[in-house]
């Protein structure tokens, strides 16, 4: 006997839910970035470029992260619309502020690099999920990858992977080998969190 389920009523998140969720996702992302930067680690994307800039020029990670994201808002506006772009702008601003504020309230000078990298991967991955599910992102090369996929037909995953590979390879001369290994483990954890929990068609709202 076939049981026919009633159609699911899809209700988008309310403005209040977005207002609560986006700072939560941004906090988790900034916390993960702070932990990884505290061990002089590396990561992919715009955050990875911001890390390298801070190691080379001693600039603020949060400030560099925010500035580097600016050009991508124009792509986001064309590709995703103003609502996504505005939410992403707010998310990036909160992440940038969070990375700069965390050192004022907590001391992580005695962190284990492996623990920090794994925890950072979990925090960033979870933060990304929260932002994705509320129509936002952490900006950066992910927007570029989506744009190239729609305009050139290039697979977004391959574009993002290639960019991340270039960033990690470029960091070899600046990062201790063990820290680099820990950072790669953290990146694997991050991608597993996103891959397992973020699949089209499985989440409505």
UniProtKB/TrEMBL annotation:
Topology in the lipid bilayer is annotated as: Multi-pass membrane protein
Spans traversing the lipid bilayer: 20-39, 59-77, 89-106, 112-132, 153-172, 178-196
Give the highest taxon in the source lineage: Bacteria
- Pfam families for the chain: YitT_membrane
* Chief subcellular location: membrane
Which cellular compartments is it found in? Cell membrane
Which UniProt keywords are present, listed alphabetically?
A: Cell membrane, Membrane, Transmembrane, Transmembrane helix
Question: What InterPro entries does UniProt report for this protein, alphabetically?
Answer: UPF0750_membrane, YitT
Q: What is this protein called?
A: YitT family protein
* Originating species: Demequina sediminis
């Amino acid at each position: 006997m076939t049981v026919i389920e009633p159609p699911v009523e899809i209700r988008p998140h309310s403005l209040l839910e977005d207002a609560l969720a986006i700072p939560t996702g941004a906090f988790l992302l900034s916390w993960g970035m702070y932990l990884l930067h505290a061990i002089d680690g590396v990561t992919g994307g715009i955050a990875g470029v911001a890390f390298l800039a801070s190691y080379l020029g001693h600039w603020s990670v949060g400030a560099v992260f925010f500035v580097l994201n600016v050009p991508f808002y124009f792509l986001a506006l064309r590709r995703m619309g103003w609502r996504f772009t505005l939410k992403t702008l707010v998310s990036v601003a909160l992440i940038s502020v969070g990375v700069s504020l965390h050192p004022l309230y907590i001391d992580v000078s005695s962190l284990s690099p492996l623990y920090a990298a794994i925890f950072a991967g979990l925090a960033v991955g979870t933060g990304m999920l929260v932002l994705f599910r509320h129509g936002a992102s952490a900006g950066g090369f992910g927007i570029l990858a989506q744009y190239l996929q729609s305009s050139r037909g290039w697979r977004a995953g391959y574009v993002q992977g290639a960019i991340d590979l270039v960033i990690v390879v470029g960091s070899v001369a600046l990062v201790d080998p063990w820290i680099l290994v820990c950072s790669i483990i953290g990146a694997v954890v991050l991608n597993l969190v996103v891959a397992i929990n973020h699949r089209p068609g499985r989440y409505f709202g």
